[in-house]
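Handout, section B. The chain below has 284 residues.
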Amino acid sequence: SSKSPESTSNRRREYQSVLNVVQHTESSTMPARVLLAGLQQTDSELDVSPFVARVAAVLHLAGVDFKYFNMSSKDKDKPRTTNGKHPAATVDGKTITDSFAIMNKLKECIPQVKELDSHISPLDHATFHAMETMLAESVYWTSLIFPRWIDDEGYSHTFQNYFAKLVPRFMKFLIDWQVRGTMKQQYKSAGFGRMPVSLVMARVKNDLESMSILLGKKKFFGGDSPCIFDATAFAFLNGIHSNPVRGTDGEKPRQLLLSFTNLVEYINRVGQLVHARKCTKSNE
């Protein structure tokens, strides 16, 4: 006998209900496609390294779930760096190091990340590539390494925030000699250690001014909606803004940043989007 329309409709509804349950179960039990390992030692949402933070930020902006591991984690699933570079990430089972390579892999494999740049023109892409180079080769050293490791007042905060709970006070000299000493040498090798502080701060001001002009009155560097470069810009600018050393008369990077109102508003605007999402963190 033929089935009545009502019976067919009921079966369809029943099938859809079962399908919804299966899909929900699969999505809740499927392991994260992206695993990220970084340097974070505190309870702050973003990693202290802007290179790790940019990867986390782009995943948050794209709405992609991921799992975060501290570099000291013993979790067997933690992505492990093979060349000493951080961050390290596993994307769809493949482990990659270096944030530039990771970002390219995310654009290749994760549609939500690629979609962030769907409204970006080739000219904008070229401009953002140049700005990324400025952030990595100039801003990183002058606006993050200098206040954290070179400046004496800044270093006292760095030690207190990231090492005080890890090593006894009487062993501080080891951090001073080994870790800070290494950072000072790298800073000098990058060319900035040979410059007077006044010239370093002049570079900071020029770099921030360039970013302020490029942003203008837009909500994001991508326009009305964020693009992939916004993750990088936010990671670096937020790192400068979150430094507790305020300084006076433009003698510190954070003080210089505060003079660019649109950049400060931008940090708060993107921060709300990034912090609205949470990643899964390894407990080990």
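Note. The beta strands are 34-38, 66-70, 88-91, 94-97, 280-281. Compare this with the example in section A.
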